[in-house]
């Protein structure tokens, strides 16, 4: 299993509070932490923890955050040979409030905004060495589209996690191998007038919609709507649960699982991740997921 992630590398500044503040309201935080994050980096770490060979592609600044993030990725077993370090550009930053078993996130792109088409051209030869390329929306959308088209031409399977929410052209939906929005993102892509089951049936075993505490849903090629319930968890922090699910799904699809088994595995990994604080620090190992599933992994 060799997976490439083209995406964001952020430092998460996370505060915990009694509840999410209302508009215009000031609350006292209980704690503040600086934690490695970014949807791209999170998914790369999730994959590496689950036993895949992973390389991260993206940009960081030449600041302390950038150095710490590269060291963290390397420590998690993720290759960073082609991550570009930019002079005079700050590393991406995410400001996260965790409260009431949920979170709010504001992202400052920084160096992630410099992951452009020229950068993708410079790594195109490397991407061809991988079994799958994984993308998200925390780098410029035009770069995501450009990368999908390039991978489609090279016949490299692509998973697009369209988060944060942004419209995705229909031609790009057709080109990707898997599209993994949450419910809000699916509405933005396909329109409010579309019924969830209709959306799924149009893209069988391609469109996978995550539904938070209700689990994940897709449509099998037989036309059956497959609903995989979320794992019951003692929730400490939901940050990174979606990234864990996406990473785990990619690993198991690359390992040859069918979509049902891959989603059961991914949901289990995501549930385990919510029981620890922090996005990457809460991500489970392959051994932990296998133990939870009773060793039933293909």
Task: Describe the protein's architecture and organization.
- The chain has helices spanning 39-49, 64-75, 117-127, 141-154, 170-175, 183-190, 196-202, 241-254, 259-273, 286-292; strands at 2-6, 10-16, 31-37, 53-57, 59-61, 78-79, 84-86, 92-99, 102-108, 132-135, 158-160, 178-179, 208-210, 216-219, 225-228.
- The chain has one domain: UDP-N-acetylmuramoyl-L-alanine:D-glutamate ligase (3-Layer(aba) Sandwich), CATH 3.40.1190.
- A six-stranded parallel β-sheet has the order 6-4-1-10-11-12, with helices on both faces. Strands 3-2-8-9 form a four-stranded mixed β-sheet.
- The chain has 298 residues and is of the alpha/beta class.
- Helix 9 crosses helix 10.
């Amino acid at each position: 299993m060799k997976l490439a992630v083209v995406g964001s590398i952020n430092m998460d500044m996370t505060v915990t509070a009694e509840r999410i503040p209302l508009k215009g309201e000031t609350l006292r935080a209980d704690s503040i932490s600086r934690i490695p994050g970014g949807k791209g980096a999170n998914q790369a770490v999730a994959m590496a923890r689950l036993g895949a060979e992973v390389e991260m592609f993206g940009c960081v600044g030449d600041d302390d955050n950038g150095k710490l993030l590269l060291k963290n990725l390397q420590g998690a077993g993720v290759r960073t040979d082609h991550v570009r370090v930019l002079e005079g550009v700050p590393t991406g930053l995410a400001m996260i409030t965790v409260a009431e078993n949920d979170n709010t996130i504001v992202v400052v792109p920084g160096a992630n905004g410099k992951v452009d088409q020229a950068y993708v051209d410079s790594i195109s030869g490397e991407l061809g060495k991988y079994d799958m390329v994984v993308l998200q929306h925390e780098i410029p959308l035009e770069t995501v589209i450009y990368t999908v088209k390039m991978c489609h031409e090279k016949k490299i399977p692509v998973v697009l996690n369209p988060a944060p929410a942004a419209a995705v052209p229909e031609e790009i939906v057709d080109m990707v191998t898997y599209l993994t929005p949450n419910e809000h993102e699916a509405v933005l892509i396909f329109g409010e007038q579309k019924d969830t089951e209709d959306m799924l049936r149009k893209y069988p075993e391609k469109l996978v919609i995550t539904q938070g505490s209700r689990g994940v849903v897709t449509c099998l090629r037989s036309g059956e709507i497959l609903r995989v319930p979320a794992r019951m968890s003692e929730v400490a922090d939901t940050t990174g649960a979606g990234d864990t699910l996406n990473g785990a799904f990619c690993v198991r699809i690359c390992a040859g699982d069918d979509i049902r088994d891959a989603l059961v595995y991914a949901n289990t990994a995501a549930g385990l991740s919510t029981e620890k604080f922090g996005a990457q620090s809460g991500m489970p190992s392959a051994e932990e997921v296998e133990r939870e599933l009773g060793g039933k992994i293909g």
